[in-house]
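Consider one such protein record:
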Amino acid sequence: MHSIRWFKRTVPAALAFILLLYPAPCLRAQGSPSGPNALNFLFAVGAQLAKQADAAPVAVETHTVLNSGDRIKFFLEPKSNGYFYLFHSGPHGGLALLFPPDLKKPQAPPGQPLYVPEGSLWFELDATSGTEKFFFLASTSRLGALESLYAHHTTLKDRADIQLSTQAVLGEISRLNKQHRSLAAPAEKPVRIAGKFRAPSKTDSATLPDITPFAKEIIAQDFYSKTFTIDHR
């Protein structure tokens, strides 16, 4: 079953969905990374509530309640070299890699603002309620085992094999978290907004409502991860 879908918002009207997913401002940083294995990036997650379509967006916390029709968008701007991954797990066990768009190129260049989904697209929660999870991982080194597991996952057709593969991918994410648990706690600081919202491209500026006010600067040693659990009602 699908649980999130692509949604495009333009000005002045909101349009219908574009593509279903398989179950699945200028910003100024405060501080700089320390050491050769430091990660430094800006990150934000915001939601637009369906019942308040014209209201300001809200920040998505690690545990958030959202309803069918609500929309979600992610913002990332690397300040140092790193590898970034965003996975989604749906209510019925579906698994999808939302970022990077190409696993052969998981490294995001510093200084380039990125949006997931891109441009004016948003993820919209469909009618399938349940628990949605988004797994965000950042690392100074490539997560080769995780990439290999997911690459294999995309080749599977049998339902039982897909379920086992999903467990293997999520198990690797859990293993990575445990492996890096001893690292110093990351520094997370709100980011000052310096000017107007910066769109991802000159040809696609219809990304409103703006979620960058929720951005935080993350400084971590070697590895960072965060899981967002959505109670989808």
User: Anything to note?
Assistant: The helical segments are 144-153, 159-179. Confidence is low (pLDDT under 50) at residues 9-33, 193-207.
